[in-house]
Write a structure and sequence with these properties.
about 200 residues; alpha+beta; 6 strands
Length: about 200
């Protein structure tokens, strides 16, 4: 009985070897698996092709930048030319309008002169002819005022830019270059003189 028990009880070392012998050997992994979705490195030929393609793209981008700069410069020049055209057109329009107004007013000056001479003549009170001439003269002056035509003042010193001296007189009660008498009224449109005032200058 004792021998049988000894045969049944095996030493711990034998049990460990027996357990290890029952386990199947596992193959060892020699290299780590590649992560999912990873791409292989491009071949040298593919790298060169990519470099050439990148260079072509850079050239196209540079060309597009140059074209954009040229287009911008052309647009700026066109805008400047258009603004100059608008300015010149406005100046020409104003000049044409001023010339037309000056010509029309100059044609009416002799008519107004004749009316003023007629109104300076003695007349009877309530004379309808006198009243009619006064009304016409007033309407012409209102039209002149609306057009910017004004009478040149003659209450100051003689100004050769505005007055035309047709006679000189020595008069002690007047200062030098004073206007002693007005023979014909002068008119101007802004800075443009339509007709100089014809005056007599003292001293």
């Amino acid at each position: 009985m004792a021998e049988k028990k000894k045969r049944q009880a095996a030493p711990p070392e034998q049990e460990a070897r027996a357990a290890g012998a029952k386990q199947e050997p596992q193959p060892e992994t020699c290299a780590a698996q590649a992560p999912a979705g990873a791409q292989e490195a491009p071949l040298p030929e593919e790298m060169q092709a990519l470099i050439r393609e990148n260079e072509e793209i850079l050239k196209e981008v540079e060309q597009l930048r140059e074209d954009a700069a040229k287009t911008r410069d052309a647009l700026l020049r066109t805008t400047a030319e258009y603004e100059n055209f608008r300015r010149r057109s406005a100046e020409e329009k104003a000049k044409i309008h001023g010339d037309a107004t000056a010509d029309a007013a100059a044609q009416l000056l002799p008519v107004l002169d004749n009316l003023d001479r007629a109104l300076a003549v003695e007349h009877a009170d309530g004379d309808p002819v006198y009243q009619g001439m006064a009304m016409i003269a007033g309407q012409i002056r209102e039209a002149f005022q609306a057009l910017g035509v004004e009478e040149i003042p003659t209450d100051g010193a003689f100004d050769p830019k505005l007055h035309n001296a047709v006679m000189h007189v020595e008069q002690e009660d007047l200062p030098e270059n004073a206007i002693a008498e007005v023979f014909a009224k002068g008119y101007r449109l802004g800075e443009r003189v339509l007709r100089h005032s014809m005056v007599k200058v003292a001293n």
